[in-house]
């Protein structure tokens, strides 16, 4: 049975999609399940919100940087399926229908994502996708022109999930319309072996939620970072082109993070090769938050074609942590992260101490400041000054290779 399941699942996800981590915008963290369009028309889950965010992605420099998905989360549908058993959008909040929204998004060079739940109900209490609806819902999404599906796991058993998640992968593939498949499966099974088999998962889903939902707080970001890097030996090998760990949305531009913490989330998500799905109000985003999210070098590192997830390589007693992500062309990204809460900290080390090859010479670029340091030898000691709950991030290229 296992061999058969494996054979089936390896057929399931040869969809050639998400070769680099998906980038875009998602409604959930910032706008949740706000359906009160009478009292709060500007911020409720309605086609208007998605039309406006699509305009922002297309017009404010996001799309050119790779932020291309505009993703609807929970609470978009009517409370019942129609007479034919089909999912339908709420007629008051999505009067034009999802197909029209997809057309609008596509006309702006963007892609549309939607949300479903493998279970009786979605987490917000809307109609779920029971096993008998898997094929029908996949066909519905494809007919609407949807480009990505996040399939949640509320109100279903472990058995139903083990059956339904691979089944949806096959159903999406069978539509012939390319749909990136984001699974919440591992998050509902605790995220770790033996309950979660990442080898099988990578053959079924393009990305998957491993852990808790992100909330608008630094505590939440830290709890996610802790879980991902504590379990990096299991998680890191599971990621690669076409299949990514998803630590959840970027909350930069909202209310819970300071400037330093916002820079830290961006850097740590980039080192994790995480999808960059913003959940913030792009109509009112501050220039400083926008600058972090639109950092070109950061995005280039996140989207590195090798698709290797980074690791935490050092945890100091001084509450400084160092993360390393290998990149193509023998380059790498280093993040120096401070968990201190007192004052800027001067951290001194060398590339040799960080296990870089002996006798190599690197050109180093500070990802946030842009400043270039030339000819740093592996043996040279250097210092970085890291602000409390902040990061210093470096992009390193071997200079011997540059000279060739």
UniProtKB/TrEMBL annotation:
GO terms for biological process: glycolipid catabolic process; glycoside catabolic process; oligosaccharide metabolic process. InterPro entries: Aldolase_TIM, GH, Glyco_hydro_27, Glyco_hydro_27/36_CS, Glyco_hydro_b, Melibiase/NAGA_C. Gene3D superfamilies: Aldolase class I, Golgi alpha-mannosidase II. One of its GO terms (molecular function) is alpha-galactosidase activity. Residues 307-390 form the Alpha galactosidase A C-terminal domain. It is found in: Lysosome. It comes from the Eukaryota. GO terms for cellular component: lysosome; membrane. Residues 1-18 form the signal peptide. Pfam families: Melibiase_2 (PF16499), Melibiase_2_C (PF17450). It is an enzyme of class 3 (hydrolase). It catalyses: Cleavage of non-reducing alpha-(1->3)-N-acetylgalactosamine residues from human blood group A and AB mucin glycoproteins, Forssman hapten and blood group A lacto series glycolipids; a neolactoside IV(3)-alpha-GalNAc,IV(2)-alpha-Fuc-nLc4Cer(d18:1(4E)) + H2O = a neolactoside IV(2)-alpha-Fuc-nLc4Cer(d18:1(4E)) + N-acetyl-alpha-D-galactosamine; a globoside IV3GalNAc-Gb4Cer + H2O = N-acetyl-alpha-D-galactosamine + a globoside Gb4Cer; a neolactoside IV(3)-alpha-GalNAc,IV(2)-alpha-Fuc-nLc4Cer(d18:0) + H2O = a neolactoside IV(2)-alpha-Fuc-nLc4Cer(d18:0) + N-acetyl-alpha-D-galactosamine. Keywords: Disulfide bond, Glycoprotein, Glycosidase, Hydrolase, Lipid metabolism, Lysosome, Signal. Its main location: other. Its EC number is 3.2.1.-. Removes terminal alpha-N-acetylgalactosamine residues from glycolipids and glycopeptides. Required for the breakdown of glycolipids. Homodimer. Belongs to the glycosyl hydrolase 27 family. This is Alpha-galactosidase.
